[in-house]
Amino acid sequence: MKRFVVLVAVLVTVNGLSDELINEFKEKVQTIGMQCAEQESATDEDIQALIKHEAPVTHGGKCTIFCTMEKLNIIKSDGTIGEGDVEWLNKAKEDDSDFYEKLQSVHESCKETVEIAPDKCDTAFNLAKCAKEAGKKAGIDVGEA
């Protein structure tokens, strides 16, 4: 459970961002993700799946994604799509404007295509899948586990 990485973090794994900015985000996601995994009673299997960028096994695993995204303002408490961690995004924009534009493209694409499900944990899971797929299409190295 030491390397817990939520699917949204795959979009910042490499690309043109500075190591400092990448590490800042990874550390933030890892800390929040571990808190959320405990809060949502994610199983070890869920955590291993998330580390491998695969679908979590239980509903608690999907809710771990929701909890993490909510704390990063990627998704709102009602399940609608948020604007993301604006402070970090502004740093990313300064660091690599091309990468920032790709992130914005992914955000807009997923905001338009991901339907808000009755269960906000399902919405978060679908958003994570969309971000991974749209990231690949946008030329973002999403990294495979």
Automatic annotation (TrEMBL):
Protein name from the UniProt record: General odorant-binding protein 28a
Entry GO CC: extracellular space
Gene: LOC115874560
Gene3D superfamilies named among the record's database cross-references: Pheromone/general odorant binding protein domain
Leader sequence residues: 1-16
SUPFAM superfamilies for this protein: Insect pheromone/odorant-binding proteins
A Pfam family assignment: PBP_GOBP
Keywords noted in UniProt: Signal
Entry annotated with the keyword Repeat: no
Coiled-coil zones: none
Lineage, broadest ranks: Eukaryota, Metazoa, Ecdysozoa, Arthropoda, Hexapoda
GO molecular function, one term: odorant binding
GO biological process: sensory perception of smell
InterPro entries according to UniProt: PBP/GOBP (IPR006170), PBP_GOBP_sf (IPR036728)
